[in-house]
Automatic annotation (TrEMBL):
This is Response regulator transcription factor. The keyword DNA-binding applies. Residues 144-209 form the HTH luxR-type domain. It comes from Gulosibacter chungangensis. PROSITE patterns: HTH_LUXR_2, RESPONSE_REGULATORY.
Amino acid sequence: MRIVICEDNALLRAGLGRLVSDEGHEVVASLPDAVELQTKVAETGPDLVLLDVRLPPTFTDEGVRAAMALRDENPGLPILVLSQYVEERYATELIARSKGALGYLLKDRVADVAEFLDSIEQVAEGGTVLDPEVVGQLLGRRSRDSQLDALTERERTVLGLMAEGKSNAAIASQLYISEGSVEKHISQVFQKLGLGAETGGNRRVLAVLAYLGVEIDESGGAR
């Protein structure tokens, strides 16, 4: 996998580069800010962009704005955003502008190397991986939704784990049920949320967006 890293902290930037390189991935660009990010992405054609939410010069929302600009130019480009702590407004904006291939993780998660590398793989493959703390905060502000109210407690639990980027196998292991049972629960979730096979986009991603209260337009995209 070809990866572009954009992180102002030199030690973390080097550490991330070493981490993904040791896993067999190629770092095609390593940047301290977003000034040349779009140019480097255009030149290298990466499979994933890994960037910080807060970047120079103001360390406020440069990373978020850079991610949105990349999304506008390359709608299918997988982006994994790292943040020191949950920035709810930024997370909501990014999720609302994405139809998939998005990760939003707290930097503490990098300490769990295996889980972090798995998140990279999932996002690169078009999935959505959200930090459990991000999911928790967004759910805390989500208004009630009649479709979600129709889900059983177990179906909501499965959908919540999907929002965290868990695979069917991981969900089955955590809930002590079979993968077949997980698949049945997910099928029911899709049905109750009106996500038929003909729905545009990745149904798994769209279900997560609905769960987090992000509106889905008629084409199956987020708005």
